[in-house]
């Protein structure tokens, strides 16, 4: 029993042709689609023995529908055409159509098509039986060889004797192509078998899990399979499971695949590396690769300097902009190999950390180096590498800023402690600045910014505060108190004291004594 698909946007044509098919082939099944888009969806989920399609349809013509079909289904298309569109039918034949029929359809011509279709169906049945037999032979072979023979084959280390054994078992005696598929978790043997069955809808093939890495699946395609059409199998949602989750590389066609499998596998693995840059893409062909084996990622000195200066200045946004510009240049085509970009990124980040004394200190330094090592070792995509590098740079900027803020706070406390300890001495702005290794101008501005008072005024406040306490509790003469708090000139001391408190030191002492007597 055959299964037909009729594609026509005219309901009357669909009903009439379906009735004709029912009379001529009462035991067969007919499905219909009102548009090319609907027909494509039906073809995704099943295989039809024949597909009858009209040429003239809105949105998608019959020829456009054919172009979007995979080669296996395209070879089963029968074009229905009016006399005025005979040239379109001829063009359909160049696309690989099974045949064409002129409207109105002649029953005898249609019977001829059915006869050919039955012959084709019988050939396909024999092919399936052959594939099943081959699959059984392969299944018996794999446990005996434990995958090592196949691994030696794709590594190019297989002996001539073992290669002869493979020729008797594998359905690949001729030209073909290797496809290497990789994802972030392991392939099982049963899953490899299901993928192999799916690919066998297109022709001879053989799939197995790499002996060295169970996250890699190797698929060898016979010459009858269009690699690009087969590649669409790996774009199906149940295999992809998210952007960047799976990638498939297609090697070049080799005239003698059994003998040259290792070359095509090596090319397929190389092509697959491009997903590092093109994360939304799944299938990559070696012949169309944008990778450059020879390119070394360059780093302009101006860009590196801009990044370093931004870090020194604590400018987070400028640092991010500088690093983004560097990565933008690295991503230009042709792309450098991913491992070279990761190495260059590692070198840049390590130099950035090493160029700052603050970041070279102890455990902080070790933490940064570990973070850079993990990032550049495991980044599986360009965006992941760039994002991780930005995180490192931002953390470095914030670490430097935090250190400087803490250092400034500590400097203020040290300044105040210094004044409190040495106010009796002849200290000045210049001597204090020199004590902390700063210029007098910077120290003066820094002190006033932090304490909202200049250095001399604050020193006087400390001295006068100490003098008041001594005047209240001690009986020393005023000139002696002046000396004790750092004033060598008693007249100057009297003048400064009166300006601050509105009375001379002696008047202040008398006032305090009177207050004490009244309270007593």
UniProtKB/TrEMBL annotation:
The UniProt record lists the keyword Phosphoprotein: yes
GO molecular function, one term: DNA-binding transcription factor activity
Entry-linked SMART domains: HTH_ARAC (SM00342), REC (SM00448)
Keyword terms, alphabetized: DNA-binding, Phosphoprotein, Transcription, Transcription regulation
Domain HTH araC/xylS-type: 413-511
Any GO BP annotation: phosphorelay signal transduction system
Transmembrane segments annotated in the record for this chain: none
InterPro entries: CheY-like_superfamily, Homeodomain-like_sf, HTH_AraC, HTH_AraC-typ_CS, Sig_transdc_resp-reg_receiver, Tscrpt_reg_AraC-type_HTH
Pfam family, one: HTH_18
Presence of the UniProt keyword Zinc in the record: no
Response regulatory domain ranges (all copies): 3-118
4-aspartylphosphate PTM sites in chain numbering: 54
UniProt-listed PANTHER family: ARAC-FAMILY TRANSCRIPTIONAL REGULATOR, REGULATORY PROTEIN POCR
Record's protein name: Response regulator
Organism of derivation: Paenibacillus oralis
């Amino acid at each position: 029993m055959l299964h037909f698909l009729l594609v026509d946007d005219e309901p009357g044509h669909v009903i009439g042709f379906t009735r004709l098919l029912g009379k001529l082939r009462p035991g067969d099944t007919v499905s219909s689609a009102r548009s090319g888009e609907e027909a494509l969806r039906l073809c995704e989920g099943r295989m039809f023995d024949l597909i009858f399609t009209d040429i003239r349809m809105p949105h998608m013509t019959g020829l456009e529908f054919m172009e979007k079909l995979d080669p296996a289904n395209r070879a089963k298309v029968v074009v229905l055409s009016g006399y005025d569109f005979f040239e379109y039918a001829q063009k359909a034949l160049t696309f690989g159509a099974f045949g064409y029929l002129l409207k109105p359809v002649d029953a005898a011509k249609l019977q001829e098509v059915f006869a050919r279709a039955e012959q084709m169906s019988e050939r396909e049945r024999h092919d399936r039986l052959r594939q099943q037999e081959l699959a059984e032979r392969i299944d018996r072979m794999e446990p005996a060889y434990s995958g090592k023979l196949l691994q030696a084959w794709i590594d190019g280390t297989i002996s001539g004797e073992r290669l002869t054994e493979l020729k008797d078992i594998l359905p690949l005696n001729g030209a073909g192509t290797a496809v290497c598929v990789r994802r972030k978790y392991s392939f099982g043997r049963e899953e490899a078998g299901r993928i192999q069955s799916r690919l066998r809808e297109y022709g001879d093939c053989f799939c197995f899990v790499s002996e060295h890495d169970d996250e890699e699946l190797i698929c060898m395609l016979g010459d009858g399979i269009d690699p690009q059409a087969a590649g669409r199998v790996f774009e199906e949602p149940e295999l992809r499971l998210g952007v960047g989750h799976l990638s498939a590389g297609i090697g070049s066609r080799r005239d003698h695949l059994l003998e040259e499998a290792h070359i095509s596998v090596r090319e397929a693995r190389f092509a697959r590396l491009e997903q590092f840059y093109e994360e939304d893409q799944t299938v990559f062909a070696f012949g169309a690769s944008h990778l450059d084996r020879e390119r070394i990622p360059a780093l302009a000195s101006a860009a590196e300097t801009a990044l370093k200066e931004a870090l020194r200045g604590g400018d987070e946004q400028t640092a991010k902009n500088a690093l983004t510009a560097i990565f933008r240049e690295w991503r230009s085509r042709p792309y450098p190999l991913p491992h070279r970009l990761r190495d260059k990124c590692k070198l840049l980040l390590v130099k950035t950390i090493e160029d700052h004394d603050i970041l070279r200190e102890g455990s902080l330094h070790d933490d940064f180096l570990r973070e850079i090592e993990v990032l550049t070792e495991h980044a599986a995509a360009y965006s992941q590498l760039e994002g991780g590098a930005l995180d490192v740079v931002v953390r470095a900027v914030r670490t430097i800023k935090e250190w400087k803020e803490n250092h400034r706070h500590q400097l203020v406390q040290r300044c105040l402690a210094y004044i409190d300890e040495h106010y009796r001495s002849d200290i000045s702005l210049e001597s204090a600045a020199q004590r902390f290794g700063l210029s007098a101008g910077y120290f003066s501005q820094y002190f006033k910014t932090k304490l909202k008072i200049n250095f001399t005024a604050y020193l006087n406040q400390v001295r006068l505060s100490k003098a008041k306490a001594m005047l209240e509790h001690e009986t020393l003469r005023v000139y002696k108190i002046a000396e004790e708090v750092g004033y060598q000139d008693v007249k100057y001391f009297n003048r400064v004291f009166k300006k601050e408190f509105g009375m001379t030191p002696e008047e202040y002492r008398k006032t305090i004594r009177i207050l004490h007597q009244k309270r007593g």
